């Protein structure tokens, strides 16, 4: 069925990709209108839930008519900003669509939408319910997206399992992801002439020394992972798959804390002692790291260098995981094998996804989508065959999961 309508679905994906849904600024109204139009075309139920008018979320649910479990499909509409405007053209170049969001994650989101719509006519062959969540604000932490839905409408989106199409590559199964701690350090002083360091301390020097101390204490420090997870992440199959999908060294990185000082601000002139300096840092840490202890040590380092520390709570959250041998994980691996020939061993995501919101509540959540290697770049893309395979994969997995209860 998907092959017969290949051109139609590729065209639909390109239309979705042409919608300027960068976050920031985060206005998702045009993208949400597109999603509603597609769902209306399928004749499936849906409604809009929003904490902010410019960040709507689309939630739908249909029932098979037989008792059973609820599968939740999750994807987001917002994408990274662009520095290359042609990314909004969604041009086909050779065998690929080059566009912002092609990888992260409009291909995976459209897979959820198509799964929800295309399985609806076959619901009497299934058991249980299928829920769709197409959200805003994933790129900025989910305060107005999935987090809001769980805070205000948890009963509508919880379910028994979650399938997410975030970029991962079709040769891995993402069953866990690192936690994040995002924070800023600031320092200030009276300022002065650069030739008079005896009269004023330099806030940039304070910040640089504090950042160096943080790197020395934490960067690439091996985490104390639970033995069962460590065994998975160090298995030859998982190491090879992670390194192939994410770049050599990714498998080892998954077991370690990482530090990234992404922004540093301070000073106006080389001959002037600045009055202020700030640095913004992002830390990623595996399952097994006690975040409260890490935060306490970071606060001590900041204080020792005369800096203030402020945590961005919207972008700071614990690591999450699900059973890599659970039912949906097994279904997903089987369908990847059937569709691509790849075995897709379990690996750890290095970035964050909304799947964590389900995992934190004990709901199994797994991820499989297109390649992640180009996401956020000026060459972001998805190949045509990869997009079609992702669509098929999600439809097959949902049919298998809900079909199991109808046998």
CATH architectural name of the largest domain: 3-Layer(aba) Sandwich
Largest sheet descriptor: 6 strands, mixed
What's the CATH C level of the largest domain? Alpha Beta
Overall average residue pLDDT? 96
CATH topology of the largest domain: Aminopeptidase
Question: What level of helicity do the residues show?
Answer: 25-40%
- Strand order of the biggest β-sheet: 1-2-6-3-7-17
What's the number of domains? 2
Coarse structural class: alpha+beta
Using the alpha-carbon principal axes, give the shape. globular
> What's the CATH H-level superfamily name of the largest domain?
Zn peptidases
Order of helices and strands: HHEEEEEHEHEEEEHHHHEEEHEEHEHEEH
Compute the separation of the termini in Å.
23 Å
Query: DSSP strand (E) fraction?
Result: 15-25%
- List how many beta strands DSSP finds: 18
Low-confidence segments, given as residue ranges, are none
Number of helices: 12
Radius of gyration: 23 Å
List keywords for this structure.
single chain; 407 residues; Aminopeptidase; Alpha-Beta Plaits; four-stranded antiparallel beta sheet; 12 helices
Structure explained in plain terms:
The protein has 407 residues and is an alpha+beta fold. The chain contains 12 helices and 18 strands. The longest helix has 20 residues.
In short:
The chain has 407 residues and is of the alpha+beta class. The protein contains twelve helices and 18 strands. Strands 1-2-6-3-7-17 form a six-stranded mixed sheet, with helices on both faces. A four-stranded antiparallel sheet has the order 11-13-9-14, with helices on one face.
